[in-house]
Amino acid sequence: MDRKNQSPQGQTAKVVVEFLEVAINCIVFLKGFYPSRAFERRRYMNVVVNKARHPQLANYIHSSIFALLPYIQKGLVKRVVVIFYGQDQVPLEKFVFKLTIGQSYQSSVSEAELEFALRAFLVKLNVSETIAKPLPSGANWEITANFRELPSQENEGEEAKLWVPTDTKQWMQPSEITPIKSMDSNPLKLQLYMEHPSVTEQKV
Amino acid sequence: MSRSSGSSSRKRGRPSSKSGATNPLKPPFFKSSPFSDFGSYMTEKNRKFRDQFETDASSSSHGANLAITDGGVSGVDSQGIFKGVAIFVDGFTVPPSQELKNYMLKHGGKFVNYFSRHTVTHIICSNLPDSKRKNLRAFSHGLPVVKPDWIADSIAANTLLSWVPYQLVEYAVTETSKQLKLSAFFSEKGISRSHHQGILIQNETSLSDKCKGESTELTPSGTDNFSQENSQESKHIDTNDELKDVKSESEEDCSTSYVAGKSSDHLNRPHSTLTDPNFVENYFKYSRLHFIGTWRNRYRKRFSNFLSGTGSKNNNPNNDTENLRRIVIHIDMDCFFVSVVIRIFPDLLDKPVAVCHSNNPKGTAEISSANYPARSYGIKAGMFVRDAKARCPHLIIFPYDFSAYEEVADQFYSILHKHCKKVQAVSCDEAFLAVSLSLNDNPENIAEIIRKEIFETTRCTASAGIGENMLLARLATKSAKPNGQCFIPLDKVNEYLDKLPISALPGVGYNVEEKLRMKEVETCGQLRTISKDVLQKDLGSKMGDMLWNYCRGIDHSAVEAVQETKSIGAEVNWGVRFKDSKDSENFLMNLCKEVSLRLHGCGVQGRTITLKVKVRKKGAGEPVKYMGCGDCETISRSLTVPGAINDVDSLHRIAKQTFASFHLDVKEVRGVGLKLSRLELANPSRKGIEESRLELLFSSATRKGKQPVEQSCSTNHSREDAPSGACPSSSSAVSQGSNISELPPLSHIDLDVVRNLPPEIFLEMNGLYKGELRKILESQQQEKEYNSESVERKDCRQQDQEISTRMQRVLEPSEASCSKSNYCKSDLMPGSLSQVDFSILENLPDEVRTDILKQLPPHRVENQFSESSKSNLSLGSHSKGFEMLRVQNCLLSEFLLSNATFLTPNINPSSEEWDAIVVNSCEFMKEYIRQKIESDIEELYNCFRLLKRLSSKSSLLLELYDRTLPLLQASIGEHYGGKIASLV
């Protein structure tokens, strides 16, 4: 873990990244994509969460999210999306973390406050099972990130190269959005919502 | 004049009150004499002097006997103008004491060598040593101390002049300088002195018996306080007077003493605001003007059945005006106040009599009425008693007898109403009658009948003037007086007016008279030569017009039975002396009680309260009139309140506040008057509304104490209180507070609110807190200025919010009434000033207004919504929700959730009001969406889900939901590329 970066954005970004890792673990568990045995109960921010035990899975989530850290610090990352596909690579469900880290505001919210706010996400996430749609067999999932601008490859380090452009198909119709949790603070603004294809899209 | 006596007098040394000082030298020469002791020696000596004096007098007073012929049956030796006067000369005088002695010899007076308060009536001296001056009473024993000029002048005038003007100057000065502490002055000694004076002035003995007879005659009647007092007092004097010649009891003395007696019981009362807790009450009890002033109400009550116009027999309901002519009769009782009092003393009819509070012959009480014999001495109403006595020493003075006045006035009016339907009461003794007569009737007959009946019933005379209009009737009365009547027929009008001095016209006062005199106009005849235009130019249009008419005998005013009372009040200009503000407060309280009583008596309430204060003019000394107001400046201020009041508390508070606003030194106050005008009938139901309003204000006031955030709410409340008036005038606040005895503690007051209150309300509050409020504010102000630099930045946002909430009110003044469901968009600030309603803006406190004006353009341009600005959600004047949103910084959804039960207004969906609410709410919602869409769709989602759920209960919320959902979805689509699920 990179703990050297002590700037407010760095601090916040680090917290966010940690949070995202845990949250994605939870989402995956929530979706029942893997058997529940593959997860273990952990305590994070004093909330019971499930963490993947399988090293590959854990590593995938961890590495991909931590690869985002520099971009998040710079405020380049607009969204972090967990997409579940059906067999035809058409997204069936998206968990969107829309995040904005203010760059100008220097004084950061204290870590405790931030944790408190983020914990609410986890709590809410844990009870959002009902909103989620059951996945068909043969489904897949991936973590994607939407950038505000394309990062210049040259300047980035090794971790950044882990990220590749995605070829995820887009929905033709506007999606249906179900907000789960939002927080609005300085410097971090974070929203979590789910997207589903609209009814008409599904019929098509 | 005997030389020998002169020299002998000198040998004995100057007479002195300490005469014993020279005597110890004497006894050795009289060792063999029959005097056993010093006392018997002195008695013998005095006797010898008296004998010598009397032999001298009998030999020297023949000339005087020839000169003086009036005076009753009395001894030869005691004849003359100084009969009954016994002087004692103290110290050096000009003329010397020996000469004074000779004057006394010649004119029937006595000269006493050794002072004794039983034999001496006057002390004569030219000057006094300081110690005696300071302790005058010990020296004079209550006897008058007079300058020798008195004797000389009396002889020159060949009559006994009043000694009052001849008092030793120092004496008078001492008295006035002690004026404030004079309550002791009115006790026994004062009476005894005035008593003595009475004796001295009398010169008719024959009447004394009659007078006594009358007083005993009166005693059995018993019911009359007046006569009882009279007789008791006479008795009292009789017993006290064993040392005096019984003959000296005269009518004069008698009357004096009972007046003194009368005054003793009311003068024994502490005598100014300083000492008398019930001063106001007593003041009005003894006030003649008050009697006249309140008489009208009595009259109205008593004769209401006549006034309502049920006709009397004499009135001809015939409308056939051709055979009728209207005549106005003006009836005025002759010197009412006197003739009523003396109606039971027929003997006094041709004696000079006056009515006055006090009979103290050197007093400054004002004569209120004098009969015609007295007037022939030049005595007029308004004159001081001492001046009147100087002109006419045997003037008899009576005190007021208000019950008799009432009785006579009632009789008087009964007669008038019996003869005529249309009676306009001018005063208790004066009225206009409008009579319709057939052409051949002589109007004098009816006047004759009325006058005769009045005399028979009341034993008082009345004069009548008859004319075509009120003016002529009134003028005719003047020529008719006393006890006569005068008719000015139409063809004699010009003749009559030609010679009439303009000052006789009603409404012509000193100023007008002076102005016209400059134009050499003194009579109405001359006035007639001046054109109306010129008159109007010189005297003002109204006055000019009036005069032009009057000098031609034209008067359009009609005899009206009932005249509206325009104002009710009470004023005290006598005896007002305050030591400190506590005194003045007490006094105001009592005055307010009096006014309140009068208002209640008339069943009215007033809206305009006028406080008038007389303040001693700078440099003016103590007034000539004892305890009078003297030379004063008059300040007055009035305050109009929206709700009429008549209760003591409100009056007192307003009066106190107004009084405080004068910033006077209470020691300089010489008179206070309180008056209510804009009267309206007291109506209990109205009162209820008023009170509930008050409660409203007050409850908001207490709330504002607890929660500063509510500021705008409570100010809004106060504005609501006076919805019609442009100004939230102090009155509502004022009258409101009045009913609430408990004030919130000072620490609970939100100073921001206070600062923004209108000045009147602030003054009022400040008064309630005894000025503490202002102090606190001032200190805070300084602090604020000190801090303002640093705070400015922080405050900016806060201010924004405040402004916008206030602006909310500016823009939607009606919103308050439908507040419950009204979501006010926080940022309804118009884009430019042109969209602001200035009439509302103007009514805002200055500070707020400038803030708004300052904030207006940038506020709109930035259009920036911060996290905290969501607390701007002002929900109308739904203070609870509003407060909650602001304080807890909570979300609309939470508000909706917690207030779900409140959000169901009872408003007709078709009404304009409803439309307005919907529009406002939608605006608010849209703004909220715009604000939240970037950062918090969860909140929006919750809001709309709640709205959707609640819309089943409230058509308003349904409407709101329907109208705003498209925007939400569009916004979501724009920002998130989708739609909110489950809301479609």
Automatic annotation (TrEMBL), chain A:
Membrane-spanning residues: 15-34
Pfam families in UniProt: HORMA
Gene3D superfamilies named among the record's database cross-references: HORMA domain (3.30.900.10)
Alphabetic keyword roster: Membrane, Transmembrane, Transmembrane helix
PROSITE patterns reported for this sequence: HORMA
Cellular component terms per the entry's GO annotation: zeta DNA polymerase complex
HORMA domain ranges (all copies): 10-194
Record-given protein name: Mitotic spindle assembly checkpoint protein MAD2B
From TrEMBL, chain B:
Disordered, as annotated region: 1-37, 208-271, 707-739, 783-803
Family matches, as InterPro entries: BRCT_dom, BRCT_dom_sf, DNA/RNA_pol_sf, DNA_pol_Y-fam_lit_finger_sf, DNA_pol_Y-fam_little_finger, IMS_HHH_1, REV1, Rev_trsase/Diguanyl_cyclase
Protein EC: 2.7.7.-
EC class of the enzyme, as a word: transferase
Domain of life: Eukaryota
SMART domains: BRCT
Domain UmuC: 328-509
Amino-acid positions noted as binding Mg(2+) in the UniProt annotation, renumbered to this chain: 332, 429-430
Localization: Nucleus
All residue ranges annotated as the BRCT domain in the record: 77-168
Biased composition (Basic and acidic residues): 232-249, 783-800
Cofactor note: Binds 2 magnesium ions.
Cellular component GO terms held in the UniProt record: nucleus
Low complexity: bias regions: 723-739
Keyword vocabulary terms for this entry: DNA damage, DNA repair, DNA synthesis, DNA-binding, Magnesium, Metal-binding, Nucleotidyltransferase, Nucleus, Transferase
GO biological process, one term: error-free translesion synthesis
CDD domains on file: BRCT_Rev1, PolY_Rev1
Start-end of Polar residues biased regions: 216-231
Cofactor needs: Mg(2+)
GO function terms (MF aspect): damaged DNA binding; deoxycytidyl transferase activity; DNA-directed DNA polymerase activity; metal ion binding
PANTHER family cross-referenced by the UniProt entry: DNA REPAIR PROTEIN REV1
Homology family: Belongs to the DNA polymerase type-Y family.
Function: Deoxycytidyl transferase involved in DNA repair. Transfers a dCMP residue from dCTP to the 3'-end of a DNA primer in a template-dependent reaction. May assist in the first step in the bypass of abasic lesions by the insertion of a nucleotide opposite the lesion. Required for normal induction of mutations by physical and chemical agents.
Protein name per its UniProtKB record: DNA repair protein REV1
Organism: Rhynchospora pubera
